[in-house]
Amino acid sequence: MSEESTSGSATGRMTPTERAQVSEHVKRFLADELERDIGEIRDGAHLFDDLELDSLLFLALFEELQGQYEVTVDTRKLARFARRNPVETLGELIDLITRILRGEVPLE
To answer: What would be the CATH architecture of the domain defined by 2-101?
Structure first.
């Protein structure tokens, strides 16, 4: 079932269910790590200014997601991609993670 939920549809669009699952996992992880209530963590939050996300927490998030979704992400490729395609809000990060998990952003 996890392969189906992360493989996506033939159209290449994110389904609401896939994004909702990724959103839940990311927000739960951040709430635990940042010691905040999950209800405080919103898609519009700026990653660095509002959530104070740093590079180590960002890498820990991807480590967590790799284990959870059984995917491999090359952190060097991720860093290069992020420099060319910066994300500023949590919602943008969730969209990016969903695209990575669906194989739309090759980082293996």
So the answer is: Orthogonal Bundle (1.10)
